[in-house]
């Protein structure tokens, strides 16, 4: 008899690929409170585009089938007989950039209501060090009435999903693991090692694993902030930043970071988790917060640069027709969570310009719900005073942008991918 019956709590960008992978070897129940999400997945459709339809359909099974495969459900009764619970819910920040643990608390309450003696609860959500044991475990104990590390146990294995990346998929990225006891750590590591072809790294305890994850993205955030600051300096000196980075990159140990808009649900969020915890224990994290300030200001900076160029070219700003290419947080991905493209768009709108947002990947209803902005999925048949490329979707590389421009129009390339086609790039 298979000793593992796994419940994956949360079937988004992290949970679904993980559920699909585990379902190739184990009996898996994918649980999500969004019934519409369950309905689409049960038909083999993933709107996040992380799991191809044929791959998803190959592991789906019907309710009541206790063999290998994936059953998706929003009914808590369907996860009652699981013995491993893996929580993969998002960890956002609020409007004041403070960690919002509500999804973690709610999912812990859900698992706590079905928790049994001997069960292991594994968290994958990115958090500050100590969150699993100090914030989540008390919820599990309170709801279940069970005692931690006596009746049930915990693990932590931070997600390393890269949305839109079809090369570095979940099974091909080395996985950090940890457990609430050495014995449980070994069990958690063995579970992941059985499906992760890239291997695993067993950390000595949960806090170490939590800290390792949160600094991964904080490090990237700080490095991008550095090149964003360089872009501002070199712009004042009339030097092409990308040419500078290309030249510097010829040195073997130069780190290949590029300037840009830092959004999404990881790099633009996770540093605030570490900063908040640092401040709680009496330390002010100057470099981390400085990096966040630089990166959070880039949308306004890009918009101001575009306005300056419009003035230089005598383009009327009020009522100007501007085509914005891309609104998702990164290229070739439908995810619009915490996208900083909207910072550029809203800043340009504040000058009275008319913005058309074209993005073949974004869901217009989702963008409207999240940001109150209208988007289109097909290229408009009209001309514009300004074209701004904020996301480098593959569909944009072959566009004849000059055919979309009015006379004396301009092109601004935030991503630096248009080479000589743009009047200026970040």
Question: In total, how many beta strands?
Answer: 14
Query: Strand-and-helix sequence, N→C?
Result: EHEHHEEHEHEEHEHHHHHEHEHEEEE
Given the helix and strand composition, which structural class is it? alpha/beta
Our count of helices gives 13
Largest sheet: number of strands, sense, barrel closure? 8 strands, mixed
Global Rg: 23 Å
The coarse overall form would be: globular
- Distance linking N and C termini: 58 Å
Biggest sheet, spatial arrangement of strands: 3-2-1-4-5-6-7-8
What's the helical proportion of residues? 25-40%
Mean pLDDT: 94
Q: Which band does the percent of strand residues land in?
A: 15-25%
Which parts are unreliable, with pLDDT below 50 for 5 consecutive residues or more? none
3D architecture notes:
There is one protein chain. With 426 residues, this protein is α/β, with parallel strands linked by helices. Helix content is 36%, strand content 15%. The protein has 13 helices and 14 strands. It has helices at residues 15-22, 35-42, 53-59, 102-112, 131-144, 182-193, 206-236, 241-248, 270-280, 286-296, 298-312, 341-349, 364-371; strands at 5-9, 27-31, 69-73, 84-87, 120-123, 153-156, 175-179, 200-202, 321-325, 354-358, 375-376, 384-389, 405-413, 424-425. The protein has an eight-stranded mixed sheet, sandwiched between helices. Strands 11-10-9-12-13-14 form a six-stranded parallel sheet. It is globular.
């Amino acid at each position: 008899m298979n000793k593992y019956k796994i419940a994956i709590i949360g079937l988004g960008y992290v949970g679904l690929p993980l559920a699909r992978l585990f379902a190739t070897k184990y009996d898996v129940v994918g649980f999500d409170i969004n019934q519409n999400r369950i309905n689409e997945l049960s038909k083999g459709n993933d709107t996040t585009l992380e799991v191809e339809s044929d791959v998803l359909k190959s592991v789906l099974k019907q309710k009541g089938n206790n063999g290998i495969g994936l059953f998706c459900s929003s009914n808590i009764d369907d996860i009652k007989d699981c013995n491993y619970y893996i929580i993969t819910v998002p960890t956002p920040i609020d409007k004041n950039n403070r960690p919002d643990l509500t999804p973690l608390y709610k999912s812990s309450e859900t698992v706590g209501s079905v928790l049994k003696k001997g069960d292991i609860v594994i968290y994958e959500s990115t958090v500050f060090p100590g969150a699993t044991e100090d914030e989540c475990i008390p919820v599990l104990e309170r709801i279940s009435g069970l005692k931690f590390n006596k009746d049930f146990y915990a693990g932590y294995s931070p997600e390393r999903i890269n949305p839109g990346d079809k090369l570095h998929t979940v099974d091909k990225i080395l996985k950090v693991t940890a457990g609430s006891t050495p014995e449980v750590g070994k069990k958690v590591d063995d579970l992941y090692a059985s499906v992760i072809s890239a291997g695993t790294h067993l950390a000595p305890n949960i806090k170490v694993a939590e800290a390792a994850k949160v600094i991964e993205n904080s490090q990237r955030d700080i490095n991008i902030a550095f090149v964003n600051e360089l872009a501002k300096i070199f712009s004042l000196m009339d030097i092409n930043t990308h040419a500078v980075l290309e030249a510097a990159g010829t040195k073997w140990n130069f780190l290949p970071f590029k300037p840009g808009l830092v959004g999404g649900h990881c790099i633009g969020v996770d540093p605030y988790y570490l900063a908040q915890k640092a401040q709680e224990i009496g330390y002010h994290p100057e470099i981390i917060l400085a990096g966040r300030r630089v990166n959070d200001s880039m949308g306004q900076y890009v918009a101001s640069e575009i306005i300056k160029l419009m003035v230089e070219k005598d383009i009327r700003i009020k009522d100007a027709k501007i085509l914005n290419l891309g609104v998702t947080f990164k290229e070739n991905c439908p995810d619009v969570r915490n996208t900083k493209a909207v910072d550029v768009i809203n800043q340009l709108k504040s000058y009275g310009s008319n913005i058309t947002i074209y993005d073949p990947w974004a869901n217009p209803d989702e963008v409207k719900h999240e940001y109150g902005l209208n988007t289109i999925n097909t290229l408009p048949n009209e001309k514009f005073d300004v074209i701004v490329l904020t996301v480098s979707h593959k569909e944009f590389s072959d566009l004849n942008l000059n055919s979309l421009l009015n006379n004396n129009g301009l092109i601004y390339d935030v991503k630096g991918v248009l080479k000589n086609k743009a009047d200026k790039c970040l």
